[in-house]
Write a structure and sequence with these properties.
Blueprint lengths: L6 H13 L3 H12 L5 E2 L10 E3 L4 E6 L11 H6 L17 H24 L3 E6 L8 H23 L13 H5 L7
Parallel strand pairs: 3-4
Antiparallel strand pairs: 1-2, 2-3
This protein binds zinc ion.
The site of zinc ion (ZN) has 6 residues, from loops.
Length: 187
């Protein structure tokens, strides 16, 4: 393998650079913002530089391009044996020309992704991965509702961990006034 790229490869690389910070990521941001969620972008201090960081939820969101991150393509074992064993997925079709180049590149990305997720999780972060193909108009709403559920779960997990709810005792009446304000569904 050499560093020299074919025009096709160069085109893909340029397309990747130009699409950075645009399409899929923006769709996610817009949805979150429109639903009242606030976040930070590409926070360098957070391992792996996630696309979206939501500190109150202790959640890092990665919006992954299906091609570059090899969505649903298993490369681990296949690479060791033969390129022929690699099965493309519906959203990640690895070119047949210079296949080895692409497989190596995508595999490296996958490994880096896994390492980033691992480091984040070890540091107490929740990781949410959103795939580009999950943001198509027909499915984006469903995807983002799932993301919303995960965010709420992450918030609850955090709350449970840091703020144990005191047990009710005879001398300590239940805080009825507080209960009247819907305890769930509000941040
Ligand atoms: Zn995909």
């Amino acid at each position: 393998m050499t560093d020299t790229m074919t025009p096709e490869q160069r085109h893909r690389c340029m397309a990747q650079i130009h699409s950075k910070g645009t399409k899929p990521e923006v769709k996610v941001r817009k949805w979150l913002w429109g639903h009242g969620y606030r976040y930070r972008l590409n926070v360098k201090s957070v391992p792996g530089k996630p696309d979206i960081v939501m500190r109150p939820y202790r959640t890092a969101i990665f919006v992954n391009g299906c091609f570059w991150h090899g969505h649903n393509v298993q490369l681990e074992a296949a690479q060791v044996d033969s390129l022929k064993l690699i099965v493309d997925s519906s959203c990640c079709k690895i070119p047949t020309t210079n296949r080895e180049f692409w497989v190596t590149k995508i595999h490296r990305n996958q490994e880096r992704d896994q390492e980033n997720y691992r480091v984040l999780q070890e540091n107490g972060w929740h990781v949410i991965i959103i795939w580009e193909c999950q943001l198509k108009p027909a499915v984006i709403e469903h995807t983002m509702r799932e993301v919303e559920l995960l965010l709420n779960e992450n918030m609850l997990a955090r709350y449970k961990r840091h703020t144990p709810i005191p047990l009710h005792t005879e001398t300590e009446p239940l805080p009825l006034a507080a209960e009247e304000e819907a305890p769930f569904g509000h941040k």
